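Support reply, case 0932

Customer input (verbatim):
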Amino acid sequence: MAEVLMVTGMVAGGVGRHVEQVTAGLSEAGHHVAVACPALVAHRFALERAGARVIEVEVGRRPAPHRDRAVVGTLRAAMSSVEVVHAHGVRAGALCVAARRGADGPPPRLVVTHHNAAPEGRLVAVVHRGLERIVARGADRILAVSPDLGDRMSDLGAAAVELAVVPATRHEVSADPRQMREVLGVAPERALVVAVGRLSPQKGFDRLLDAVALVAPQAPNLLVLVAGTGPQEHALRRRIDRQQLPVRLLGHCDDVPDLLAAADVAVSAARWEGQPVWLQEAMLAGVPVVATDVGGTGAVLGGAGLLVSDEAPGRLPAALAEQLVQVLTDPSLAAELADASASRAHQLPTGDDAVRALLLAYGRAAPSGPADVT
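Our regenerated output:
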């Protein structure tokens, strides 16, 4: 039985759902889990219901010396009674490195999951890279959500790096696809493309609109539905209205699996992804996938979808449009990709796989060799 302290900051959907999932999995397996996080995160992702003891700490997105000193003190006290500290994100990881340095007695093992590439913006990117260096040199083990992040942490001097296991939650589809289309007001003859994600620059929805503008003249029945919210929502909506694009922004959706099951194609134009859970959900629904070849997307698809190179960003919208047109106009290709998605879905990791992988990582993080935490 392991005593685990999870630590996370103010996180959005993907990271928060992952913390909730592994917390529930570890708790159900009989391990004791405490989660140090902002109160809003604990509430949004129902961490107490997942089995955690919640310790409220304000791990902010940006440095704040007075607040961060208080967080380090709280984490140091919480570390005194656990075997493993598992931080999510390099900001939380760096604070845990600082807290562990002053801990009384033998320090707990420190595992950090690296969830995101450097954000856009020169200053925030510099800060992010500084945090990566602290974590690479101060953690016992790094779990990277994509191969490129793993390579970067190894280059920065991390002693032990492995690929994180980030599975999708396997929801049952509750609505028949035809019924779902009726609820959405989508006629049977429409070519329905679905995209999911936070409306932020990293997710590339501006590039998706570029591609849609090229596809629409060749596919007059096209309709693109986007599920998600974020800082770019108003700008995207203005552009959709101005150019009269066949795109509808749905906002936050609780029925993403049902939405995906009703789609003809799932598309991602992201500039970077870790292990995109929503594309896993698309494959679980047996939907053809077209996506940019960034981060861990290729590893998640495992050859099941059509990947578009992002090496020449200026040509990306045209290449993405070309692949979408092929799938939408070639029924045999669409059927082949649907079969490939369904086949790949059987190989995707489960929540139990994620818990087993974590317990092995916690054991391997021990300085004196693997410990029995299973």
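We compared this against your earlier run and they match. Two observations from our side: The first strand starts at residue 3 and ends at 8. Residues 368-372 have pLDDT under 50 and may be disordered. Please reopen the case if you see a mismatch on your end.
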